[in-house]
Amino acid sequence: LEMLGANGGTQMINGVKAALDFPHDPSRFRFVTFMTDGFIGNERDILAAVHGRIGASRIFSFGVGSSVNRYLMERMAEAGRGVVAYLGLNDSARDVMDGFFARVSRPALTDVEVDWNGMAVTDVYPPQLPDLFVGRPLVVTGKFTGDPTTVRVLGFSGGERRTVMAAGHEQDEAGSSLAKVWARLRIADLADRATWAGDPYGELGDAIRNTALRYQLVSNYTSFVAVDSSHRTPGGHGVTVRQPVPVPDGVRYETTVD
């Protein structure tokens, strides 16, 4: 072992394909776990492989260290209807793992569905509902017309089909805040689709931009600009400023920045 050395990059795509293509018993609840400690940049290829192969499997992601690609870890867990956990350089591995297994070992409801009971509901996000775990809320948003009514939340618990009734309420002064929650989830879903499926005609980008502008939210295509009118730089030309590039804790600069 003393002769071994760590070098090169993380080829995660091969592991994703091998794990999700592996045959499994459909009568069993299969968990697939991915763990990484490094920089992974080919999010599009990995997420496309996950979406194309996930089936009924669940994905649980672990990020170890201070330089984990958190976007990829969270999107993989979301696509796989699982959860993600992180272990920092100064964290207790025992505490993190004990907390993780305590949460995922007791799913409150799996294969969750919502029966809208005849309401005209559209634009539901997230489009695929994750499992409901103890201590982890499940937020579902959508648009509807007409009067609210009681909806049914369906799923499996302990191998049995369960039904939970949720009474509808009239919109109150919190309506505008709820609209922003829906808009954020819509933008996140559109951005994820653009990442793993591509957006050759710019339709997803246009939808993100229009949603962000309508609901006044920050996105990849919109931002808030603060203008300080009390100070102006002299001259009509810009000034180039050399900005230091920080690296994650525990990562050597010479192996990270060209």
Report on the architecture of this protein.
- This protein is about 30% helix and about 20% strand.
- It contains six helices and nine strands; from the N terminus they run H-E-H-E-H-E-H-E-E-E-E-E-E-H-H.
- Helix 2 packs parallel to helix 3 (about 70-80).
In short:
With 258 residues, the chain is α/β, with parallel strands linked by helices.
User: What's the helical proportion of residues?
Assistant: 25-40%
The 3D shape can be described as globular
Q: How many structural units, i.e. domains?
A: 3
What average pLDDT do the residues reach?
85
Rounded to the nearest angstrom, the radius of gyration is 22 Å
CATH fold-type name of the largest domain? Rossmann fold
> Roughly what fraction of the amino acids lie in strands?
15-25%
- The CATH homologous superfamily of the largest domain is termed von Willebrand factor, type A domain
Query: In oligomeric terms, what are we looking at?
Result: single chain
Reported for the largest beta sheet, the result is:
4 strands, antiparallel
